[in-house]
C-alpha cells in the first residue's frame, strides 16, 4: 500500500550521518525549510555497519538505527561515486575505498589507477535519502548527478571525490565551486528537493 506519512514543517529530525561534508551540505540545504536538525554524533549514536548490497538498503539501515535509538524521525544518506569504466565501482563501497581512515586521497588514487587508459571518463554521483520513523516505517528518494572524471584532482572545496568530478554542463570540478553552487547541481541537492516535495507536509 502507498505510504503517505509526511513530516510536519517544524519537525525535529536526526541527521543520521557521521560525514562532516554531508552534514555541512544538509545544514545549508535545510536552512530555509523550518526543519530542525540534530546530528547523530551530538546524540552519541553509534555508526551502524552498512551490510546491505544497495544504496537504498544501507540508507534504511542507518535511518532505522538512528530513529530507533533516538525516538525521533531520522534522515540518512547513503551515497557514492559510480565510474563507468569500473562497471559502476566504487558505488556503495565509495567510503570503504578510502581504507579504515576513509582517506579520500587514497580512494581517488585507486579510481584513477584502476581506470588506467580507458577513454570512457563518464561517472555519476548517487545519493539515496531514507527517512525512518521510530516505529520502523521508511521512505526513500534518490538523486543522481552525471558528469566525468578528471586527473589530477582540482579544487579545495567540498569533500570526498569532489576534486576529481566535473558535472555535465560545467568545466569546473565540484571542489572548484562554492558548496552553495554544488548543492544546486548535486545528487544530494536533487534528492533533498524530492524529499521536501514528497515527505514534508505542504
Ligand atoms: O555513512 P555516513 O555516516 O553518512 O558517512 P560516510 O562517509 O560513510 O558515507 P557513505 O557510507 O554514504 O559513503 C559515501 C562515500 O561517497 C563519497 N561521497 C558521497 N557524496 C559525495 C559528494 O557529494 N562529493 C564527494 N564524495 C561524495 C563520500 O566521500 C563517501 O566516501
Ligand atoms: Mg558510511
From TrEMBL:
Protein family membership: Belongs to the HAM1 NTPase family.
Chain segments annotated as transmembrane: none
Keyword set includes DNA repair: no
Purpose: Pyrophosphatase that catalyzes the hydrolysis of nucleoside triphosphates to their monophosphate derivatives, with a high preference for the non-canonical purine nucleotides XTP (xanthosine triphosphate), dITP (deoxyinosine triphosphate) and ITP. Seems to function as a house-cleaning enzyme that removes non-canonical purine nucleotides from the nucleotide pool, thus preventing their incorporation into DNA/RNA and avoiding chromosomal lesions.
HAMAP family in UniProt: Non_canon_purine_NTPase
Ligand binding (substrate): 17-22, 79, 159-162, 182, 187-188
Coiled coil: none
Cofactor note: Binds 1 Mg(2+) ion per subunit.
The protein, known as: dITP/XTP pyrophosphatase
Magnesium listed as a keyword: yes
UniProt keyword list: Hydrolase, Magnesium, Metal-binding, Nucleotide metabolism, Nucleotide-binding
Amino acid at each position: 500500500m502507498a505510504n503517505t506519512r509526511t513530516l510536519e514543517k517544524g519537525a525535529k529530525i536526526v541527521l543520521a550521518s557521521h560525514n562532516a561534508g554531508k552534514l555541512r551540505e544538509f545544514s545549508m540545504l535545510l536552512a530555509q525549510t523550518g526543519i530542525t536538525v540534530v546530528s547523530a554524533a551530538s546524540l552519541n549514536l553509534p555508526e551502524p555497519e552498512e551490510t546491505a548490497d544497495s544504496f537504498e538498503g544501507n540508507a534504511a539501515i542507518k535511518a532505522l538505527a538512528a530513529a530507533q535509538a533516538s525516538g525521533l524521525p531520522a534522515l540518512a544518506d547513503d551515497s557514492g561515486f559510480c565510474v563507468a569504466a569500473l562497471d559502476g565501482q566504487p558505488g556503495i563501497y565509495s567510503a570503504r575505498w578510502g581504507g579504515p581512515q576513509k582517506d579520500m586521497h587514497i580512494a581517488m588514487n585507486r579510481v584513477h589507477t584502476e581506470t588506467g587508459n580507458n577513454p570512457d571518463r563518464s561517472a555519476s554521483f548517487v545519493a539515496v535519502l531514507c527517512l525512518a520513523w521510530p516505529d520502523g516505517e521508511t521512505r526513500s528518494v534518490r538523486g543522481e548527478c552525471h558528469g566525468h572524471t578528471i586527473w589530477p584532482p582540482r579544487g579545495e572545496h567540498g569533500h570526498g571525490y569532489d576534486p576529481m568530478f566535473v558535472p555535465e554542463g560545467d568545466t569546473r570540478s565540484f571542489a572548484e565551486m562554492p558548496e552553495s553552487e554544488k548543492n544546486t547541481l548535486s545528487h544530494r541537492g536533487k534528492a533533498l528537493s524530492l524529499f521536501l516535495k514528497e515527505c514534508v507536509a505542504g
